[in-house]
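A brief tutorial aside. Many learners find it easier to grasp structure tokens once they have seen a single protein encoded end to end. The record that follows does exactly this for Acyl dehydratase. Read the sequence first, then the structure, and try to relate runs of similar tokens to stretches of the chain.
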Amino acid sequence: MKMSDLYAVGERIDIGSHTFTPEGIVHFASRFDPQIFHMDAEAAKHSLFGGLCASGWHSCSMWMRSFVDYWKSETARLTTEGKTPPVLGPSPGFTKLQWLRPVFAGDTISYGVTILGSRALASRPGWTLYTLACDGVNQDGLPALRFESTVLAFE
């Protein structure tokens, strides 16, 4: 089954959400992005952000976690319905990454994905390259991040 049979181009699909806790922010930052505004709530009050906020890489990694969980659930649903879901392969990359506003401790980011287009790969019969708009919005409906990604699918 083709992705384009499942989802319309331009249709945003909700893939999940994540609430960023102070402990989670510090844990991620201590391992991957140890800047003071991600590590120390008191010091962060005196930073450009004015409070403890998640690394942009943390907010992106939670988008990926949400997408993987969503696709696992979708694969199970489609299989139960007797359909053969596409096998998603690797992503050859992403572009246009934007961190549009800080993600503060206590914020819940809802993630989504929208298919922008696709093209069959002449060099790999059965494989399609999809271009996706990926995003996250906070609990107030304000955009927090966005990027474009590509993913290979065997259909």
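Self-check: The radius of gyration is 18 Å. If you spotted this yourself, you are ready for the next section.
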